[in-house]
Amino acid sequence: MVTRGFFSGRRPPSDTDARIPPGQYLEQGFPVLSAGPTPRVRTEDWSFTLKQGPRPIKKWNWAEFNALPQSKMTRDIHCVTAWTKFNTPWQGVMIDDILADAGIEPPTAYTLALSFDGYSTNVPTKDLVTGKAMVALLYEGKPITPDHGGPARLLVPHLYFWKSAKWVNGLQFTERDEPGFWELRGYHMYGDPWREQRYSSDP
Amino acid sequence: MSAEPSPQSPWQAATITRIEKRTPRVTSFWFQPSRPFVHLAGQHVDVRLTAPDGYQARRSYSIASAPGGGVELAIERLDDGEVSPFFHDVAAVGDEIELRGPLGGHFIWEESDGGPVLLVGGGSGVVPLMAMVRHRMLGNTAVPVALVFSARVWDEVIFRDELIGLDDRRDGFDLVLTLTREPARRPSDYSRRIDARMMAQAVERLPKAPKLAYVCGSNAFVSAAADALIGAGVPAGTIRTERYGV
What we know:
The complex is a heterodimer.
Chain A: H1 14-17, E1 25-26, E2 47-52, E3 55-61, H2 62-66, E4 71-78, E5 83-94, H3 95-102, E6 110-115, E7 120-124, E8 134-139, E9 142-143, E10 153-155, E11 168-174
Parallel strand pairs in A: 1-5, 2-11
Antiparallel strand pairs in A: 2-3, 4-5, 5-8, 6-7, 6-11, 8-9, 8-10
Chain B: E1 11-21, E2 26-33, E3 44-50, E4 56-62, E5 71-76, H1 84-89, E6 96-103, E7 117-122, H2 126-139, E8 145-151, H3 160-168, E9 173-179, H4 196-205, E10 212-217, H5 219-231, E11 239-243
Parallel strand pairs in B: 7-8, 7-10, 8-9, 10-11
Antiparallel strand pairs in B: 1-2, 1-6, 2-5, 3-4, 3-6
């Protein structure tokens, strides 16, 4: 439906157009969104736990986690609130390397990412491994600020950015695809920006 | 792109039925959706504009009206925006706009959620809180609600006359205005940015500690206000936030 009187779009130049998923616009800043107050997690209180169901598999403190092999990922990110940001540079520990340090193969097909503030979000395990995702520790070479999810946040850049849980403190492998915080509140179970899977009613 | 939404499309055409300037920068638009539309206080809609060449722009706007009170969006003009200037400069009564919603399942308040409720809004962040205040009023409920509303100046206090009118009823709704760039106009108001002391005094206006707190505004505002609430002893787990990204 063409909107009367709406002409001057911000259609991006054709060389970048292909990088912007449907319904998104290009943002130069880095907007902040969250469901509650920003937790200030001190690195001395920080830990990361891998779990299968309720059972802990392995737990790292800040120093142990930072000693794991670190990788860099520079990726375009896409927020469900319709902004896309190009070339965001992150450094952290690939999920593959976390699993390797724990000495396990992914035990189930689904994962819940868990956060210090009680937030959770579900991601199929296959979307976390084979170089697709990391627990990021640095953004633009500096520690991630609390409002952007520091000290550590999940980075799953090929899905809408609410899947990249801020203040992450663990991954829990689950037998079923269990909805997380926003998925229980109307947002899509998978969240592929290229298929515009924003809300639960989207195919 | 198809010319019309398919029957399954979550988008629907809604007709603008009324336009009213609220402040120099904020104008309210009322919509008549073409399909049934039942929302909760605090929810938002996505709005989609389509240019003749198929280019689309979408943004989210909070609903200012109470459930059952129509669909009012109070839209702030952002000079470098691409959707809000269209509404302010082009949109007219009778135009059809595509809406999707209502959306959002977290930043909502229903009577059954109870109270007391502390609402903290900055600028146009008051819009979803206004839906909650109106919902309380229409439901004739006794749930104590305090709204702390921060605006730069008196003339930018959105819904000002309506809010002061509700405050004057003294029926358990309490309005606190704080102006950041002008002196306070009413004895109970402030003239500074929100801080922990102001939040502690807002909590004291309620008969007991708030069961729920809702904070909405710019990211900087929400960060400061949420920290101030925590500084005033409000547990983080009772605070729900909605941030306007930038």
